[in-house]
Amino acid sequence: MRDAQVLADGSRIRWVEITGTGPARVCVHGAGAQAAAYFTQAMTLPLLAGRWTLMMDLLGFGLSDRPAEFGYRLDDHADALARAMDGAGVSDAEVIGHSMGGAVTIALAHRRPDLVSRLILAEATLDPVPPPAPGSVGITSFTEAEFAADGMDRILDQVGPSWAATMRLADPTALHRSAFGLRAGAGPTTRELLMNLRIPRTFLVGALSQPPAGRSELEGAGVRVVTIPDAGHNIMLDNPQAFAEQVAQH
């Protein structure tokens, strides 16, 4: 495990690293996840072996620190991730983002184009996430205080054992603020940022998931959209071989 200081208060992002040659691959997890748990199986397959790979945990999640005063919005995460990559000596990386992590990596590519040479997005969050439907319970159903008191426990009971295994490692404040960051979106939107980037971009969607909204517009903007068979939202876990095949493409 390695780390880099990313905030003035001393807070550090930590990551699990696979040694190899460059250019680096940087993997970023989704909300309530942890990078090594989601990416190690795929990133160690023979097709991807031999490359320098960093599986980074965003602030508030997994192995990284949990600063109480951090905003945890998409741009906040992107700026902290950029500092971690600077600390690791990474530039021109192939950056792989899952779900919320995909949105963070799009913001990263927009704000620090020197760090990202290519984006591989596994069902990245492209649009503002709507509030929970009436009668349902989601993270943004709670105030920050309510979520810290018992809301997170209710969500952990709801999401099932696999997601809960990594979600319980998250700081409740970080998870809550990150969820509101996804609900707020960005101006311009993450979708617009992605469409305006001028680097190779691949958007992966699981065949068991809903088709991506605006697929034709994404493809018209040069985004390569690929459906992965036998996979839902967690593509790298559901079909690691097919995921690795897409990452390996140049």
Structure description:
There is one protein chain. Helix content is 39%, strand content 20%. It has a single domain (2-130, 172-248), classed as Alpha/Beta hydrolase fold, catalytic domain (Rossmann fold). Helix 2 crosses helix 3 and helix 4 (144-159) crosses helix 6 (172-184). It contains 10 helices and 8 strands. With 250 residues, the chain is of the alpha/beta class. It has an 8-stranded mixed sheet with strand order 1-2-4-3-5-6-7-8, sandwiched between helices. GO terms for molecular function: catalytic activity. Residues 26-135 form the AB hydrolase-1 domain. This is Pimeloyl-ACP methyl ester carboxylesterase.
In short:
By secondary structure, the protein is an alpha/beta fold. It is built from 10 helices and 8 strands.
